[in-house]
Amino acid sequence: MLRRVFLGLLPLVGSALAQSSSAYTDSGNGIVFQGYTDPVHNVTYGIVLPPTTETSEATEFIGEIVAPVAAQWVGIALGGAMLDNLLLVAWPNDGDIVSSTRYATDYVQPVEYDGPTLTDLPSTSVNSTHWKWVFRCQNCTSWSGGGSLATTGTGVLAWAYSDVGVDDPSDPQSTFSEHTDFGFFGEVYSAAHSDNYDAYLTGGTGTATTTTPTSTTTTSTGPTSTPTVTGTPYDYIIVGAGPGGIIAADRISEAGKSVLLLERGGPSTAETGGTYDAPWTESANLTKFDVPGLFESMFTDSNPWYWCKDITVFAGCLLGGGTSVNGALYWYPNSLDFSTGNGWPSDWQDFQLYLDKMIARLPSTDHPSTDGQRYLEQSFNVTQQLLEGQGYTQITVNDNPNQKDHAYGYSAFDFIGGQRGGPVATYFQTASARSNFVYKDYTMVNNVVRNGSQITGVQTNDTSLGPNGVVPLNPNGRVILAAGSYGTPRILFQSGIGPSDMLSIVQSSTAAANLPPASDFIDLPVGYNVSDNPSINLVFTHPSIDAYENWADVWSDPRTADADQYLQNRSGVFAGASPKMNFWRAYSGSDNNQRYMQGTVRPGAASVNTTYAYNASQIFTITVYLSTGITSRGRIGIDAALRAQPIVAPWLTDPVDKEILIQALNDVVSNMGNVTGLTMITPDNTTTISEYVDNYDPSTMDSNHWVGSAKIGTSATDAVVDTNTKVFNTDNLFITDASIIPKLPTGNPHGTLMTAVEQAVAKILALSGGP
User: Fold this and answer.
1) Which residues are registered as beta bridge partners of 694?
2) What is the pLDDT of residue 53?
3) What is the DSSP letter of 342?
4) Which of 230, 330, 516, 560 is most buried by a 10 A CB count?
5) Which of 184, 201, 218 delimits the end of a domain?
6) In terms of domains, do 262 and 345 share one?
7) Three-state DSSP state, 452
């Protein structure tokens, strides 16, 4: 059945997506579709809408699926999610296409759905290698449950693929097993309207036209080909609109260079066009990404479309990247973070100038509510009793960034005016005001285009940007990768840069056609040297705690008084995220290396495992991390479908790291008996800390603070970029994301990353030979 394909996809306009549609012409019927080709299974999906002059909201469309014969059946969810959406399913049978419209209200076999009318058009065909279903779908743009296509905007289409046949191929309502693969893409409906719609209905193949901007012709050679266009060249093409890409784009456009910033996802905050509002924030037009107090719902949402679906760990695929979906903990880096001992080259220690530039744009706050008050601080007060009994001192953390031993303070964030701030609310806004800055979302970059060591452009999925989606550089232009610790290595692999085993995978994939000649491959340790904070959750109860319903209702049914307070003046509980306290302690290991522990305290708990009876309204969590000084390393790679993933886990591979983490956990609870009413319920008294760590699920040890996969250094033998962040053995390819950070900083890394990007951009602009 169609099941998990649609679990994480959202039927809302403006959703952030991993891939986006573009225009292509099917030479067999002359129809110009707005669609997408899945690179793994080579299935093409396309849509054409009636011209906008006929009606403001179309009620029908022409669709197309072109699939290899290996595709036993293919499904499409018009709303991007399985439940309560119109589903189309088709397969070949004896030279014909069998199809049906279906609907599901639960994760079971979808059933027949009456109302839409499907009509096969003349170019529908089946041959020895492919089958093609071209169809008219009437009464298909809205359906039961309130779902509809945003025919004048953008939306989500999800697809399901199976190489296992249906139970009765002659029956349009046949049952079938769950798909064998799935995916989704952004459909730009506003570009899918065609004045030739009526001619297309009759199967006419006359000269096709398209409304896609910047196209100069629509000549093509096959059903998955794309319009020929003239690409606009840029001085700098920056890939990825997370913090690394946004800051680089702002500073480089500020310097007068022409900049194109490409983001594979879509808008996030309302200010950027985002529309994913909670039911109670709709009247204020505030999205999930605007309201700090909705942070915990990032992980409990039944349709978490904002996470990249082709990366196996949490990674944000939307404007702002990780800074739009994280808890916004924001620590100014200290001198240790940029030290040579922490892996940075010797000319990176004078970071204060760049830190000051960042703070000037984006200061931190440890009291984000606009009324200056702190809310839901009971877990802070209880943990304070623990720490002061262990010799800790309270500080204002970002006033004392070098004080990271036996220190604690209120959690600091980069929220602004009670809403999410970060680079989207600051750097992106100033960049967007400049005429020499261009931003494109829903644009996936697969690889850089290069001639030996010289990068000439980037290969995208958007054929409106250049021939076959290639965007060119101006003479002496440069490309900056900022696609994240997983996205950047994948782009490098698909560009012929990285270890031979990863390049071999690309050579055997559908991306092989875009690789340079093997003689031009560049062997660098891309994906190696990876670190992430190992983290362990301790769960407690205390009678003073307000667990806030464990954040379960903040999206759909928040406490009325708190919601009203926030909507009125951006104050109260929802003006801040769930963390309430952070603390640090230094440890010397048996290997004579110094390691740092960080703690984060918040009401509620992700999971509880206990033999105790407990009051769920009184739970809170202390998460203990190891950061600077850890020696465990992992590796990031890709699989045969080019999905990015950890192929060697980086947590506690060095036994000394594990020793220190266990010691730190024991220290945190060492004087627990001195705090009246405090009970640790995970682990409880049936399990020791050591046993708890031994049995901890490694998949939940992930802090999602990945660094090092394209680390900076002075030699191509153990680093990917040089001291100017230029990729070794290339002339004009640079990286400005967390992948260059050689070792973990002492706190959550996004403040360190943004400071590093400020310095990296200054170095890039100062290099001779640029545009």
Assistant:
1) none
2) 64
3) G
4) 330
5) 201
6) yes
7) coil
Are residues 355 and 496 both part of a single domain?
Answer: yes
Residue 725 gets the label, from left (phi > 0), alpha (psi -120 to 50) or beta, of left
Sequence-separated (6 or more) residues with CB below 8 Å from residue 198: none
Name the 3-class secondary structure at 193. Answer: strand
- Judged by phi (left if over 0) then psi (alpha if -120 to 50, else beta), residue 27 lies in alpha
Domain assignment present for 637: no
CATH code for position 396: 3.30.410.10
Number of alpha carbons in the 13 Å side-chain half-sphere of residue 93: 15
Burial class (CB in 10 A: 0-12, 13-18, 19+), 611: exposed
Of 130, 542, 705, 750, the catalytic one is 705
Same domain, 263 and 286: yes
Residues composing the chain: 771
The number of angstroms, rounded, from the C-alpha of 516 to the middle of its chain's C-alpha atoms is 28
**Shared domain check, 613 and 500:** no
Asked whether residue 592 falls in the same domain as residue 505, the answer is no
**518 in helix, strand or coil?**
helix
Spell out the residues 6+ positions from residue 54 whose beta carbon is closer than 8 angstroms to its own.
none
Cα atoms in the Cβ-side hemisphere of radius 13 Å centred on 12: 20
pLDDT for residue 96: 93
Instruction: Please say whether the beta carbons of 576 and 368 come within 8 A.
Output: yes
CA distance 39 to 514: 12
Secondary structure in 3-state letters for 714-761: CCCCCCCECCCCEECCCCCEEECCHHHCCCCCCCCCHHHHHHHHHHHH
- Asked whether the beta carbons of 111 and 100 are under 8 A apart, the reply is no
First to last CA, the chain: 54
Stated as kind and residue range, the H or E segment containing 60 is strand 60-68
Q: How many CB atoms lie within 10 A of CB 205?
A: 15
In a domain, 645, yes or no: no
Q: Are 243 and 113 contained in the same domain?
A: no
Domain with 58 in it: 4-201
Residues 298 and 331 in one domain: yes
DSSP state of 676: T
Q: What residues in the chain have per-residue pLDDT under 70?
A: 1-19, 53-57, 106-107, 203-229
Report yes or no on 29 lying in a domain.
yes
In the residue annotation, 705 being an active-site residue is answered as yes
Within a 10 A sphere around the Cβ of 637, how many other Cβ atoms? 24
Interhelix angle 500-507/484-493, rounded to 10 degrees, is: 70
Q: Which of 352, 250, 326, 236 is nearest to 755 (CA)?
A: 352
Q: Which residue has the tokens 């054409």?
A: 48
Question: Which is nearest to 318 in space by CA: 610, 83, 12?
Answer: 12
pTM: 0.76
434 by DSSP, 3-state: which? Answer: coil
Amino acid making up residue 495: S
How many domains are there within the chain? Answer: 3
The verdict on residue 222 lying in a domain is no
Q: Quote the Cα angle for 735-264-243, to 5°.
A: 45
Predicted confidence (pLDDT) per residue in 710-737, tens digit: 999 999 999 999 999 999 999 999 999 9
Would you state the torsion angle of the CA atoms of residues 467, 471, 474, 478, taken in this order, to the nearest 10 degrees?
Answer: -150
Beta pairing partners, 640: none
**Are 588 and 481 in the same domain?**
no
Burial 247-270 (b: 16+ CB within 10 A, else e): bbbbbbbbeebbbbbbbbbbbbbb
Instruction: State the helix-helix crossing angle for 750-766 and 352-361, rounded to 10 degrees.
Output: 110
For the chain, state the CA radius of gyration: 27
Would you state the pLDDT for residue 204?
55
Q: What is the CATH number of the domain that holds 183?
A: 2.60.40.1210
What was the pLDDT predicted at 11? 30
Task: Supply 442's token pair.
Answer: 């829903």
